[in-house]
Amino acid sequence: MAPTVTPLRERLFRRLEIQPGLNGCLIWTGATTKGYGTIRTQAPESKHRATHLVMWEMFNGPVPEGLELDHLCRHRACANLSHLQAIPHRENVLRGEGVAAYNARKKKCPEGHEYYDFPRDNPRERRCRTCENAGQLRRYHLGKD
């Protein structure tokens, strides 16, 4: 007798739990990789996939080209569709808690001066005009001996 294969949908929902204390997050209780829930899909592809992505594709179809899913609730193991949003990679990174997001949110330099956008060299670079002018003045006076 051949072993019965439990459908992906059933295996997925068996391991999801509603967490009322986490704004209704639907938390994956199975295996995780870097905090993201993972589930093995069935043949013929039979590979590990992120549970939030499997849920999205099950109900919404594929994620649009050039976009990725952002967890609005900030819980990687959450698969609640109302907590997921398809956005560009750059926006996803800037919404996060990483170094790039942290630095992008800074409004002042370490000396306390306001940053300004410096579009000539790099449109994403911000500089402090006061510190930059002081540095140029210092370099000018160093060369005048």
Percent of residues in helices: 25-40%
Main β sheet profile: 3 strands, antiparallel
Fraction in beta strands: 15-25%
Q: Whole-Å distance between the termini?
A: 93 Å
What sequence of helices (H) and strands (E) makes up the elements?
A: HEEEEEHEEHHEEH
Sequence of strands across the biggest β-sheet:
3-4-5
Number of helical stretches of at least 4 residues: 5
| Strand elements, count | 9
Give the mean pLDDT.
Answer: 87
Low-confidence parts: none
Q: Sum up the overall morphology in one term.
A: elongated
Category from helices, strands and their pairing: alpha+beta
Fold blueprint:
Layout: H1 8-14, E1 16-19, E2 25-28, E3 32-33, E4 36-40, E5 48-50, H2 51-60, E6 68-71, E7 84-87, H3 89-95, H4 99-105, E8 115-117, E9 126-128, H5 129-142
Antiparallel strand pairs: 1-2, 3-4, 4-5, 6-7, 8-9
Brief account:
The protein has 145 residues and is α+β, with helices and mostly antiparallel strands. The chain has helices at 8-14, 51-60, 89-95, 99-105, 129-142; strands at residues 16-19, 25-28, 32-33, 36-40, 48-50, 68-71, 84-87, 115-117, 126-128.
Provide keyphrases for this structure.
single chain; 145 residues; alpha+beta; Homing Intron 3 (I-Ppo) Encoded Endonuclease, Chain A; 2 domains; 3-stranded antiparallel beta sheet; two-stranded antiparallel ribbon; 5 helices; 31% helix; elongated
